[in-house]
Amino acid sequence: MRGTELWGRGALDMKGQVAAEAVAIASLAREGFEPAGDLVFAACADEEVGTGFGLPWLCEHHPEAVRTDFALNEGSGERMELFGRPFYLCSSAEKMSAPFRLLVHGRAGHASVPGIADNALVKAAPLIERLAAYRPEQRLGPETSAMIRGMTGHELEPAEALELAREQDEAALELLEPLLSLTLSPTMISASDTRNVIPHLCTVDIDCRLLPGQLPEEVEPVLRGVIGDGDYDFEWVEPRGGTRSELGTPLWSAVESFVARIEPEASVLPVCVAGFTDSHWLREAFGTVAYGFFPTRTMDPQLASRLIHSADERIELDDLELAVECFRHAAVEVAGGG
Fold it and tell me: Are 255 and 89 in contact (CB under 8 A)?
């Protein structure tokens, strides 16, 4: 600990939230709180690796342990000033992580005689440029429509909302832009492992995020059209996520009443997570209403976003205490009892 902050890898993502949830449920138990139903604390590893342990394993092998009607998870909760008004973000949906790989074929040869070969690395370059230049079709989902309406007070089409944000609020623009379409980011490339050998194969990995409800088989023809003809194979690499939960549920009301209690002038803003969490396992297995909400208001959200997965990760103690209050409040409001 240093001053008012707790330092350490995962303090923000997401050991801090795990600790706050544990303290909340333990303190309720010590006080004799008896929920009307089951109140479950699930601390599950492996969310970012996705190799079949953690929550997916529990859903498959011990569904009775994690089957719930409602769940609060990671994904959002930061306080942001947007268009001059305070909001607490609450994620009700997440994009699908749908990476794909291009296997570009050529013919090997010695690098000193390039004319006798067909360089797969060179052939991959224009394909990557086409992907980078592509501007996908924008569309609204229920959470992005509600988000735009909440921020601006108006029903706006995607282009109108982006233009307004571009003119008036850069933070709103950064938040909104990746949520209106699929995104493509070429991130990895491999070819020859020897400098003097022209590669016969070049592998390009693209981080692709689809909107909730979009499916790989729906967008593959579009992506193939963008890439164009060429001597390559296209393959998806373990797509997952891309689910949403409805708004206006008892858990949503609990989040709203908590925000009203700590900051009456603030509102809860529904958002879609540009990445993904393991909430999709609960939604897919049980139809659980799952939201991402870990409220923070002391640390600047732009600073926090830069610290996650980075050096000097840390969290404000006041934000940890706020989260404990939130999880206690949600448990009492949703689970009832006494």
Answer: no
